[in-house]
Amino acid sequence: MADFPKFVEFREEGPREGFQIEKTIYPIEQRAELIDLLSETGLKRIMVGSFVSPKYVPQMADTAELFTRIKRKPGVDYSTMWLNDKGFLNALAAKNAHINPMLLYYTSDAFCRRNNNCTMAEMAARQKDWVALYKQHGYGVETAGITTAFGCNFEGDIPLSRVLDVVRGLMQLCEESGIPVPTLSIADTMGWANPEAVKRMIGGLRELVPEARIAMHFHDTRGLGIANLYAALEMGVDLFDSAIGGLGGCPFGGFGNTRAAGNISTEDSVFMCHEMGIETGLDLNKLIVAAAKAEEIIGSPLMSRVLHSGGLDRFRN
Amino acid sequence: MADFPKFVEFREEGPREGFQIEKTIYPIEQRAELIDLLSETGLKRIMVGSFVSPKYVPQMADTAELFTRIKRKPGVDYSTMWLNDKGFLNALAAKNAHINPMLLYYTSDAFCRRNNNCTMAEMAARQKDWVALYKQHGYGVETAGITTAFGCNFEGDIPLSRVLDVVRGLMQLCEESGIPVPTLSIADTMGWANPEAVKRMIGGLRELVPEARIAMHFHDTRGLGIANLYAALEMGVDLFDSAIGGLGGCPFGGFGNTRAAGNISTEDSVFMCHEMGIETGLDLNKLIVAAAKAEEIIGSPLMSRVLHSGGLDRFRN
To answer: H/E element holding A69?
Structure first.
């Protein structure tokens, strides 16, 4: 029944999304060291940081500098993101940054106002200018991110119909601009998805725009991340964002040094794929080494399981 | 495609399996208090402790006493387990203990030797005596547990064919004894399962013994617990063991107060079911209250996500 892909690609979000949420700004040397360890795992794309407002996200203020500190490994794209024109121009100017021209859509006005200080409709309209800006610099569009696609803490459940409307707007923009529909990166930004909702979402998107590649960006906020990944694999999705160690959760109270779950953990995700015979091109043991470094940097336990239990190879002959 | 049950029952393992693995023996008053909180959640069966060797498992030595400390709620079975005749007789003698007559099968000689000091074949042969003992005391057999059904740290992968052979032995015993095949409780004791292996296992069991109810006992050792649960739900399984807070992991080093994952977390599992429209009869918020108590007793962070992030109801109007 299931339509599993033979090969799945994981794109590493840890160095950006993981450190972005921390109150502490960790030393640039340590973040560069983590990225260098990640470069050895087989990952083809590592998100190094982002070009966003240093006022609101001081953790990312040294992203341009960080790009110069890493040991670039041939075949690995060291990428970044931005939320406006200025950020894109800064990314272009950064030494060694791989440019992944992306569009950004919201499905929640409340979240869009917080992140981009405009309504989701205004943000959608603005994407036309982004396409033009990218074109002006010789780029097409690789990815369109759609945030809080399952639900939003400020607005509640997001109906699938709203996500499909957003994609219809994107399709119209692509037609008008004469560009192919980019990869749709569907983000469960706040951890609202469940496996059945994931299947409905992917089914709906496939029906609407069968030619588009679909990527999923899951958070494990409420513990369903790996089940959501499995559901997406059953639907044939072969591109996922993940974070080493499950970096990216908010620290929370109680025991002081514990934290809510962040992105789905790269090593747990890769472990599941390998156990089911799905290739990833990644070395699980090297991922565990990188995850241990991430935990050392953060200085408190990460939520990854395989980081702490290890894989199964050592028990097999 | 999926054959979801409309209602799923969770049987609570936390007070037994959760505390059994801890080096510390936590005060009996606190364990009774946790059980009393669990009694308010809608759970119909709570495993209070076990009647096993106090020499090897001193944490469970006061199980008989614990049974007298809890506030029994009508409609809730307060159950227990044993590994030999003597344990069963102690359970029978214990005040207020619900007797769940069970058989116990191994799929790994090495694990059987450690747990029961005999081979898996010897243990299987011994089950005839257990059936007779239960009959002698007026009981049938409710459950047959099959341990390390997916893999064993001492033996490696356990082939499905071996599990099916074990079940064939059980079927023969049932025929000879004139009793129906009991519920098959398939335990991934050491966290080797993956969702596809779960589906193959359930498919194989259904073909061999379609009349038997299947229960799954998952551990989240390598992060796949909730995905395995989802896969089993897709196959129509409607009975699961779980542990409040995800209790039951081994403490591990590194940060001193962190721990490997234990049983699948009751509250994370229930959250997923509810989000997919599957009823459980359980109150998620009350489960979170009980999980917080479990974390307080243990004194270090539990791996449950929903305990720390909460459910979604508060964001919905």
So the answer is: helix A63-69
Full-model pTM: 0.96
Range of the domain at B165: 9-308
Cα B153 from Cα B163, distance rounded (Å): 16
In 3D space, the residue among B43, B49, B45 whose CA is nearest the CA of residue B31 turns out to be B49
Mutate which: A189, A190, A224, vs B, most B CBs within 10 A: A224
Residue A317 domain flag = no
- Closest partner residue to B309 (CB to CB) among A151, A230, A260 is A260
Pick from B194, B255, B317: CB nearest A275: B194
Task: Give the containing element (helix H, strand E) for B195.
Answer: helix B195-208
- Which amino acid, one-letter code, is at B121? A
Closest partner residue to A195 (CB to CB) among B220, B230, B317 is: B230
Q: Does A251 touch chain B (CB under 8 A)?
A: no
Rounded Cα distance, A214 and A205, in Å: 8
pLDDT tens-place values along chain A, 317 residues long: 578 999 999 999 999 988 887 778 899 999 999 999 999 999 999 999 999 988 888 888 999 999 999 999 999 999 999 989 999 999 999 999 999 999 999 999 999 998 889 999 999 999 999 999 999 999 999 999 999 999 999 999 999 999 999 999 999 999 999 999 999 999 999 999 999 999 999 999 999 999 999 999 999 999 999 999 999 999 999 999 999 999 986 544 333 344 556 899 999 999 999 999 999 999 999 999 999 999 999 988 888 999 989 999 999 96
Residue that the structure tokens 């992944």 belong to: A100
Under an 8 A CB cutoff, do B224 and A254 touch? no
HSE, side-chain direction, 13 A CA sphere, residue B147: 24
Complex ipTM value: 0.95
Taking a C-beta distance cutoff of 8 angstroms, is the pair A168, A208 a contact? yes
B 96-125: CB under 8 A from A: none
Does B4 map to a domain?
no
Residue B1 lies in a domain: no
Q: Tell if the CB–CB gap between A230 and B304 is shorter than 8 Å.
A: no
CB < 8 Å to A254, chain B: 295, 301, 308
Count up the domains in chain A and report the number. 1
A48: in domain: yes
Assign residue B272 the CATH number of its domain. 3.20.20.70
